[in-house]
Design brief:
The complex is a heterotrimer of chains A (783), B (161) and C (286). Chain A is of the alpha+beta class and 783 residues long. Chain A folds into three domains: 209 residues, Aldehyde Oxidoreductase, domain 3 (Alpha-Beta Complex), CATH 3.90.1170; 329 residues, Aldehyde Oxidoreductase, domain 4 (2-Layer Sandwich), CATH 3.30.365.10; 147 residues, Aldehyde Oxidoreductase, domain 4 (2-Layer Sandwich), CATH 3.30.365.10. Helices cover 29% and strands 24% of the residues of chain A. In chain A, 62% of the residues are buried. The longest helix of chain B is centred in the last third of the chain and has 20 residues. A five-stranded mixed β-sheet of chain B has the order 2-1-5-3-4, covered by helices on one side. Chain B is 35% helix and 14% strand. Chain C has 286 residues and is α+β, with helices and mostly antiparallel strands. In chain C, helix 5 runs antiparallel to helix 8, helix 10 runs antiparallel to helix 11 and helix 11 runs antiparallel to helix 12. Classes of the chains: A alpha+beta (783), B alpha+beta (161), C alpha+beta (286). Chains A and B meet through helix 1 and helix 19 of A and helix 1, helix 2, helix 3, helix 4 and helix 5 of B.
Chain lengths: 783, 161, 286
């Protein structure tokens, strides 16, 4: 059986279903000290004094430190994305020293012999604050004379970034239909199930002290480099391990103050130190996602043909710029045009500081925001013209024969077939039947109305071609590394720089290696998530693992085969040109009996007794792959909702997702990614929101207030695929990690608005809570 | 400090504990039973679900002293040899009902309780029965599938044994 | 997060519990399942000096027949209540509403009396207690046994008529005669979320006329409330669809609903009206 396309059960499951896991918090080496943080109760305040003396006297307490105590050594947390030359980049101390700028910012820490004692001692730390005016609303923050988050900067605007293509003024001026809408992407809390945790073990002493840092991180490699930059501890003295990591969704694509401080505390105390956050702590202090105000203007002709699109964004950065904070909304810049053709486009984004938790990547990062806006607009355009929303999309999308297609946003979409995905989705959904039911309910004035929402999305995956990142002033490249070692016994070790935290790399990577090398799946072991094991990598985010890291592995396998072929030809006394490789065996064409297995070649390469001239011993290879282009998954999602017009409650009745993620290595894993993505996208549409009060206090600090959907709240999904291989890589893969999230949010909101449109409703802000639906109905009805 | 005697996954432990020590911390930090993780502080997520005296509880909301004299079963006790051969564990594996796996121990223990109560649940009954266990990766569909498939398997076993 | 320190007392009998409570001090808390208290402790929103854990007081767990009533012991768990044949037969409203409390694991630990004594106006059971006009049974070392009608039990936000040294021992619920219908209509955003509004109703009809009606409202004020204006309008009349609809429009009268993340006061008033109509309809169409 060919491994590519095979729904292999996952190798990583055994330890996860038996509880034999390696979460960071499970690790407690002898002598481990426990850290607890005192966090600011104010959104904005000056720190006048921190008195730690009483806390130091408590039992089991080893050290109590304020930001001032660490000011000399703690450095500043990094931002890797200087999006404009004049971007305002405030210093971000891991622990606040003079001023706190969001509620939850660390102010002091206790290190104690046990977790309970550490938390107890926090209550004996006495901090004097002078409250300063909090900046809570990003629109007010950019008004003249607004209070400032960073008083020395003179403005709350970090940057304004502009992209323009085509003559937008002309397009707008001449268009008979101009739709202007304001959409709000609410602030979200990514909420990986595993709270953040970090353990740092020092080894040795003095300047040659080494550190092993375990962290619940998506990015062990980037983290190592950044920790070294921040602390000036030499990079080669730091080893970062991401053991089992319980989900990330972007929230663990970060360099957190608590990680930096773990290093510093371990260095200072010479003992292992561990910190594990509580959920309520994490809700305040792990980065948030989304939080944009979008003003979008779409120009079209009377047939619904799009002429131009104007996008004006305010993006809430929170109090500081973290690892990729300023760049997140800009990833959307290339996606607001969606799958549609248009003549002119302009995008402007201003990043705004507020006294809130910093924002950064959350599943989709910039692309869900863009997709939401364009897909909502397409439904609005259809309604404006009285045309079916599928039809209006059909009139505008790039036809399959038009690929490769250079978009107005400057990307080249390599392949796609929007027609095929849409046809399949419509059939699965029984679109016409549901439309008929909708009509019937409308006529009967049923208190429960039916709405149908459409989302024909695309997204950019496989972050990212390094030259493109360079042109966007990103601080690093977008390549990925893989190495393949065929061991003397013929077993195979694969090392990948991509760091899995639920995505199933240990299975899918083994499938690729098994397929390319012709060795049994069981003979392949995948190693990842440890800088001492995996020498280089760019880690896991942006649906990049397979499209960049998987392709690196594919190429590394081919390189091994190439080397093996030279050795085999030498041993078989044949020309390489006469050798065929298949099923793990080199054979001389036309001479069936003459051949060598790759295991035999590996043994020979290990012994190295008789290798061809210039060929080095051992059978292994390294590839660092830098993609030429992004990849562009796409698909058509259809959602039917029932809206109770009396209470405003929305229930999803049907959800059909047809995704084209290119070639599929493991369809079971792909489907799982889609399911999970849908759940998060639907949750943005219906449930989740990080809410701040007027003083800048987060009011959704627990899961009782920040509502995540359970199994009882979500529907059964119908999923299917079309398969148009990506042209940009030899595997034909595109990426699937974020597609479900990106596509589903607008599908749900479009469905709700569709249900209520006869009542005059044109929008419901997210999350579309029952109250907001009810309010929209009252206001719509009053129009 | 009260002394407690608790049977965890078939082994008896006797310990002096602070009254405020949470059962989950007792399991993790005193007994080294780290298979049961913690995901929240408000009984919402269910990651720490174990069986206490045969019924599912959120071990972050039970004091260790309250477990005194009672049996506790964690995910580690389902297949003591670590092969994960309990029908629920196998069903979770086969149905791809886990991704990061952090919610999995709690999800499996809650499912065990659900099937004890209702050996043949409908899809809706599974969804409602697991309303106290949050998963951020799977969208739940494969979890529901796994539980129903385990139910079939477990009913079959009862008949044959 | 980690609970603060406290003294832990574990009486083995009701007598012992009642004796222990006054000695445990002013800031002692009764632990009756702890599914609300434990999160408060973990978030350090409560600092009791001592916890008096009723977990081992077997007599408080009993659900018994008491002639024309049933008595649910204070620490009968939600799990137990939902399945108990006496409750299902004689207090189906309690069984139905209890089944909506939190989730199965929480229902295994959480108790009937604990929920009532916690007196969270967003809890489901206080409104049910009002609708059924139950009697709270209390005992203290100083005052002996005392009966408190449900309508006098909830005195302020999370505050009951129980004296500091007094223990809720059980709840007496009259067995309904013929003609009664019940329903609990709960409205919440997700399955495990608290009720934004809930409506518990008990209606007795005799030959089509409403002989008795009591409606309890969840989360419509600092205490659970009765929808008295609706009750007055329905009493004695026949239950036509329009009468029911008209009466339900008064469901929010006299309420002071909170405004929070999940709903404004206005929205809650609206929900009270809609849900009251639905609850009444359901209670009278079985």
């Amino acid at each position: 059986m060919t491994e590519i396309g095979h729904a292999r059960l996952r190798s990583e499951d055994t330890r996860l279903i038996t509880g034999r896991t390696r979460w960071t918090d499970n690790l407690t080496p002898a002598g481990t000290l426990h850290v607890a943080y005192l966090r600011s109760p104010h959104a904005h305040a000056r720190i006048d004094n921190v008195d730690v003396e009483a806390a130091k006297r408590r039992p089991n307490v080893v050290a109590v430190l304020s930001g001032k105590d660490l000011a000399e050594e703690q450095g500043a947390l990094p931002c890797a994305w200087q999006v404009t030359e004049d971007m305002k980049l405030p210093a971000h101390p891991p622990m606040a020293v003079d001023e706190v700028r969001y509620a939850g910012e660390p102010v002091a820490c206790v290190v104690a012999r046990d977790r309970y004692s550490a938390v107890d001692a926090l209550e004996d730390i006495d901090v004097d604050y002078t409250p300063l005016p909090p900046v809570v609303d990003m629109e007010q923050a950019v008004q003249e004379g607004a209070d400032l988050v960073h008083s020395d900067m003179g403005t709350n605007a970090s940057y304004t970034w502009v992209f323009e293509q085509g003559d937008l003024d002309a397009a707008m001026r001449d268009a008979p239909v101009v739709l202007e809408r304001r959409f709000v992407q609410q602030r979200l809390i990514p909420t990986a199930m595993e709270p953040r945790a970090v353990l740092c073990e020092p080894d040795g002493s003095g300047p040659t002290m080494d550190f092993t840092l375990h962290s619940a991180t998506q990015i062990p490699h980037i983290l190592r480099l950044m920790l070294s930059v921040v602390t000036e501890i030499p990079e080669h003295r730091i080893r970062v391990v991401a053991p089992d990591v319980g989900g990330g969704f972007g929230s663990k694509l970060q360099v957190y103050g608590e990680e930096v401080l773990a290093l510093l505390l371990a260095r200072r105390l010479g003992r292992p130190v561990k910190w594990t956050e509580s959920r309520s702590e994490g809700n305040m202090a792990a980065h948030h996602g989304r939080d944009q105000i979008q003003k979008v203007t779409l120009a079209a002709d009377r047939d619904g043909i799009i002429k131009g699109l104007k996008v004006e964004l305010l993006a809430d950065m929170g109090a500081y710029l973290m690892l990729v904070t300023p760049g997140v909304p800009l990833l959307g810049a290339f996606m607001f045009n969606g799958i549609y053709k248009m003549d002119a486009y302009s995008f402007t984004c201003t990043g705004v500081f507020t006294n809130k938790t910093p924002t950064d990547a959350y599943r989709g990062a910039g692309r869900p925001e863009a997709t939401f806006a364009i897909e909502r607009l397409m439904d609005e355009l259809a309604a404006e013209l009285g045309v079916d929303p599928i039809e209006v999309r059909r009139r505008n999308w790039i036809r399959h024969e038009e690929f490769p297609y250079d978009t107005i946003a400057g990307l080249t979409y390599d392949t796609g077939n929007y027609e095929a995905a849409t046809e399949k989705a419509l059939a699965l959904f029984e679109y016409d039947k549901l439309r008929a039911e909708q009509k019937d309910r409308r006529e009967r004035r049923d208190p429960v109305q039916l709405g149908i929402g459409v989302s024909t999305y695309t997204e950019m995956c496989g972050l990212a071609p390094s030259r493109v990142l360079g042109s966007l002033s990103y601080g690093a490249g977008g390549w990925e590394h893989a190495s393949v070692r065929v061991l003397p016994s013929g077993k195979v070790e694969v090392v990948t720089g991509s760091s899995a935290h639920g995505q199933g790399h240990e299975t899918a990577w083994a499938q690729i290696a098994s397929d390319r090398l012709g060795v049994p799946f069981e003979d392949v072991k995948v190693l990842h998530g440890d800088t001492a094991v995996s020498p280089k990598g760019m880690d896991t985010y942006g649906s990049r693992s397979l499209a960049v890291g998987g392709v690196a592995l594919y190429r590394a396998c081919d390189k091994v085969v190439e080397k093996a072929k030279a050795i085999a030809a030498h041993l078989l006394e044949a020309s390489e040109d006469d050798l065929d490789f298949g099923g793990g065996r080199f054979s001389v064409r036309g001479v069936e009996a003459a051949g060598l297995s790759i295991q035999e070649v590996s043994q020979a390469a290990f012994a190295a007794h008789d290798l061809p001239e210039g060929v080095e011993p051992t059978l292994d290879s390294d590839v660092t792959h830098d993609p030429d282009n992004f990849s562009f998954p796409h698909g058509t999602h259809l959602c039917a909702v029932e809206v109770d017009t009396e209470t405003g409650f929305t229930k999803i009745r049907e959800y059909v997702a047809v995704d084209d993620v290119g070639t599929v290595v493991n369809p079971m894993i792909v489907e799982g990614q889609v399911h999970g993505g849908l759940a998060q996208g639907i949750a943005q549409a219906l449930y989740e929101e990080a809410v701040y009060d007027a003083d800048g206090n987060l009011t959704t600090t627990t899961m009782a207030d920040y509502l995540l959907p359970s199994a009882a709240d979500l529907p059964h999904f119908t999923t299917d695929r079309t398969e148009t291989p990506a042209a940009g890589n030899p595997l034909g893969v595109k990426g699937v990690g974020e597609a479900g999230t990106i596509a589903s949010t607008p599908a749900v909101v479009n469905a709700i608005v569709d249900a209520l449109r006869p009542s005059g409703v044109r929008d419901v802000p997210m999350p579309c809570t029952p109250e907001r639906v009810w309010t929209a109905l009252r206001e719509g009805g009053a129009r | 400090m009260p002394r407690i005697r608790v049977e965890v996954d078939g082994e008896t432990y006797e310990d002096d504990v602070e009254p405020r020590l949470l059962l989950v911390h007792y399991l993790r930090e005193r007994l080294g039973k780290v298979g049961t993780p913690v995901g929240c502080d408000t009984t919402n997520c269910g990651a720490c679900t174990v069986l206490l005296d045969g019924l599912s509880v959120k071990s972050c909301s039970v004091l260790a002293v309250q477990a005194d004299g009672l049996p506790v079963t964690t995910v580690e006790g389902l297949s003591l040899d670590g092969t994960g051969d309990h029908p629920l564990q196998q069903a979770f594996h086969r149905a791809h009902a886990l991704q990061c796996g952090y919610c999995t121990p709690g999800m499996i223990m809650a499912s065990l309780d659900l099937l004890r109560d209702n050996p043949d649940p409908s899809e809706q009954e599974v969804r409602e029965g697991l309303e106290g266990n949050l998963c951020r990766c799977t969208g739940y569909q494969n979890i529901v599938r796994a539980v129903r498939s385990a139910a079939t398997e477990m009913r079959g076993r009862e008949v044959t044994s | 997060m980690i609970p603060p320190t406290f003294e832990y007392l574990r009486p083995e009998s009701l007598d012992e519990a009642v004796r222990m409570l006054p000695d445990a001090g002013e800031d002692a808390k009764v632990l009756a399942g702890g599914q609300s208290l434990m999160p408060l402790l973990r978030l350090r929103l409560a600092y009791p000096d001592a916890l008096v854990d009723l977990d081992r007081v077997a007599e408080l767990r009993e659900i018994r027949d008491d002639g024309d009533a049933i008595v649910i012991g204070a620490t009968a768990t939600h799990h137990q209540v939902v399945r108990d044949p006496l409750v299902r037969e004689h207090a189906p409203l309690v069984a139905a509403a209890t089944a909506t409390v939190a989730d199965p694991a929480v229902r295994h630990r959480g108790t009937f009396g604990g929920s009532l004594a916690h007196a969270d106006p967003a809890g489901d059971l206080p409104a049910v207690a009002l609708a059924l006009d139950v009697v709270m049974l209390a005992r203290s070392a100083s005052g002996g046994d005392r009966e408190i009608p449900a309508r006098e039990f909830f005195v302020d936000w999370m505050t009951t008529a129980l004296e500091p040294d007094e223990l809720l021992t059980g709840v007496r619920i009259r067995k309904p005669g013929p003609g009664w219908g019940f329903h609990y209509e709960k409205f919440h955003r997700t399955a495990q979320a608290w009720a934004i509004v809930g409506v518990a109703c008990a209606v007795r009809r005799v030959q089509g006329a409403v002989e008795d009606v009591r409606i309890g409202l969840t989360n419509m004020g600092s205490v659970p409330l009765r929808a008295s204006a609706v009750e007055e309008r329905l009493g004695g009349g026949t239950l036509s669809d329009s009468a029911l609809r008209e009466a339900s429009e008064h469901a929010a009268e006299g309420t002071e609903p909170p405004a929070d993340l999940h709903g404004s006061a206005d929205y809650r008033r609206h929900l009270a009206r809609v849900l009251t109509r639905r609850a009444l309809t359901a209670a009278t169409t079985r």
